[in-house]
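@here heads up, posting the sequence + SMILES for the NAP run so it's all in one place. Ping me if the SMILES looks off, I pulled it from an old spreadsheet.
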Amino acid sequence: MRILLTGATGYIGRRLGQRLVEEELQLRLFVRDPRKVQESIRPRVEIAHGSTFDTDSLRKAMGGVDVAYYLIHSMGAGEDFEKLDRISAHNFLEACIQAGVKRIVYLGGLGQEDATSRHLQSRMEVGEILSSRKEKIETIWFRASVIIGSGSASFEIIRNLVQKLPIMTPPRWVRTLTQPIAVDDVLDYLVAAKDRKVEGNLIVDIGSEIMTFQDMLKRTAEIMGLSRIVIPIPVLTPVLSSYWLGLITPVPMRVASKLIEGLKSETCVQNDNAKMYFPQIKPVSYETAVRRALKEIEEDQILSRWCDSSAGEVCDTLHEDIAKAVFVERRESDLVDMTPDEAYRRIVGLGGKKGWLRFTVLWRIWGAVDTLLGGYGLSRGRRDPNELRIGDSVDFWKVADLVEGKRLLLVSQIEFPGTAWLDFTIEDDKVIQTSYFYPNGVLGRVHWFLTHLLHMLVLDSLAKAIVES
Ligand SMILES: NC(=O)c1ccc[n+]([C@@H]2O[C@H](COP(=O)([O-])OP(=O)(O)OC[C@H]3O[C@@H](n4cnc5c(N)ncnc54)[C@H](OP(=O)(O)O)[C@@H]3O)[C@@H](O)[C@H]2O)c1
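bot reply: prediction finished. Complex structure tokens:
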């Protein structure tokens, strides 16, 4: 069996790729940036480079495929996301039909037909598009609500709220019923779907216990051994609550608002197909899901995170050209008491809990300002304290390039009018740290001049600290 996996660099897709390589099959990953594929599976997969908006690349990727997984969305692409998702799903379906693919497996969101959330409606529309040609191709469409796993956005919100706030006063939506599911169970269903014999299309709602977000907060606190008081108050609007979540948790306002929108109406399983067609899968309890997620976090075994995708229509690790930068500053530091490899390890260990070596307070202020402006700030941290891969988030940066022992290029995701890069290169016995800034219009230039002295101070000291023993 040949499988095509899309979304293989995203939260679910990365984990599914890891599971599918264990099976006796040929696995082809369809990715926008092949450099993002994790090393652990690279030798065992074929990689097809493309985008669902590029029909040629889709056509080439589909050759000889039996089952194609659709784990894609365009929610980070701004206001037009529904339109983009529609086009993307149509392109995918057509390419599957032309190539004679036998089955599409799709994971979308769980919700009622009249759900007010645009994001959920769009996920449903995608499912309908993918299922619309049943005379030509069958589709198994899974629908899940809150997914509990290390690095999932919902779990990061729950964990951070519970950890940071002894008294929580969440708004009313925390009492809406939902049906969370452990990420491993989601993967079990997705893996099983490729072999399950069905006649035509199938919609499979998946979930474990029915509970509210408030129950999840309380149960997580108990599991973490924390005593927490939850008093829901009616005054917080969804906008205010997403702003609040953006301040307290690593998940920024724009992502939090989509999750909240989704939880305003019930998101519970509406059919029995999971039990009927996949009786061998018994979803674990909420408690087990949380314990597993916490264990992975404690052991630095987070395989994927909610912020792994580059979001937008195009890959944000690539779309701005560093050569366009207007302001460039180069700092060279000699390696005296340190080998090039030690310097490289120190560079790829920057950020997250270890911080940025000097001027911690200034970095924190920088992060806080970014968070207040709706950005990621520093709270996003990093996936793993020592290991990095292209596409990983490091506080308010993303890894745009990584060459073992030689180079780390970070691109900023800071809320300011422009794009900044921080490039570390190791050449012979030197570390060369270069900062690049591309201002967006006049505002970008004003920003640069107003903050330049501060940046100089912080980046000069960082360059020196990296080579100090
Ligand atoms: N995560 C959850 O908690 C959750 C809950 C319920 C349902 N789901 C469903 O699960 C599915 C996957 O979600 P996710 O959380 O894994 O998403 P994600 O982490 O945001 O990843 C999205 C993936 O899609 C890729 N992609 C986006 N646009 C593309 C395009 N035009 N062409 C090719 N690849 C493209 C991204 O590639 P880049 O790396 O290049 O950006 C990334 O690999 C979605 O349908 C979602 O509705 C997820």
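MO: The first strand starts at residue 2 and ends at 6.
MO: One more: Residues 6-13, 32-33, 36, 51-53, 71-74, 88, 107-109, 123, 144, 147, 152-154, 308-310, 315, 391 surround NAP (CB under 6 Å).
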